[in-house]
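Supplementary material to the annual report.
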Amino acid sequence: MKLAPQSKNEFMRMQAVRSLEILDTQSDIRLDRITIYAAQMLEVPITTVSIVDLDRIWFKSAHGLDVKELARDISFCGHAICEVKLDNIKNRIFEVPDVKSDYRFVDNPLVTSSPYIRSYISYAIQSESGQIIGTLCALGTEPRKYTKSKKQILILLGSMVENIIHNRHHLDGIKHKFD
Amino acid sequence: MLDYINISNNIYMKFAPTPSDEMKRLDAVHRLGILDSDSEERFDRITRIAHYLFDIPSVLITLVDNDRVWVKSMYGCAAREEPREVSLCGHAISNKVSEDISSRLFEVLDAVQDARFCDNSLIVEKYKVRYYLGFVLQSNDHHNIGTLCMTDTRPRVFSMSQKKLFVDLGLIAESELNNYRVTSPDVNNDPASQLKLKSNVCIDFSPKEERVNEDLNTKINSLPDTLLSGLTEQEKNSLLNFLETFPTER
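Predicted assembly:
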């Protein structure tokens, strides 16, 4: 297993996360609606809005998962935020269609024991200063290759999450974003 | 019919029993004319309210048909229908109910600890249901036709006053169900009036249909074309429905 690396500009990233003052806050019904709907549309048992803290992934919303946080180094999101680029919304997607054929995750405890994750897809959420602060992600228990339209839906829902986290209207600027 | 089925590892699961008025009950369900109809806001708002009011993941309005539990409205889950014999609603409607309205509540505090359901893979594994509260919905002639029910993935405890509110929502759902034939003119048993109504449908409903399309178009226009072009009709409708009911406040 390859532990999730630190991102290159971790100091700036952590400043962006902390300045949001979102960690360990109450749940938000709008984000819970989004994770429930994402699970339904992407047909997966687990979906989360994850905030990547210094050493943990904290879930602002989690559907199908009982825990509130996970260690960052064994997390998928920890990898995702180091792999994606923010230049284009499509590049914000990080996808692992089958964890069994990816050396980074093959012996990850989330894979080898409950909840037995087999596939992962996420959309990176950025701060207003352009740092990646977390993800909207979907975890499947079967190998999955998502269609273009499912990815588009994930991008839309992820953009809504980003708006909500930054106290904007949930559909703010979404049309512009896709064009 | 056998009440119990022997599963390979010697664990017994109790099937939902058949109510004594089953023939008349089924007749009442079918007479509603609602089975396999599309989702409707007047039912969806009830499941939505319950979801937020009781802070519970899944809420459903179900009808118990001959061999299936059919879902008219759901909030927080994707079930459309499930086999009756392994369903919690099948158990709920087979309970004898009395004049006392609270006898229409069927509660499972923790399915994992309940001998009737602990080895029911649909409930415990697929839907991960631990808690279930169902309110039995009755037809006008007092047959148990279905339920308003809610489930959680962890055990829950509700107070008497919360359960009273749940009963209130159940009674709203019940009157919507029993008014179905009155408010939906294309549902009628009489072939002659059915024909008459069908021809009316073309005249009466076309302006409304146009209106609906107009609303739909406005919403579609607020979304990116590149997103919508790739979606199936079903995905598009589901997405628009999701956005339409999306809360604007936390």
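The beta strands of chain B are 4-6, 12-14, 58-64, 68-75, 81-83, 105-108, 131-138, 144-152.
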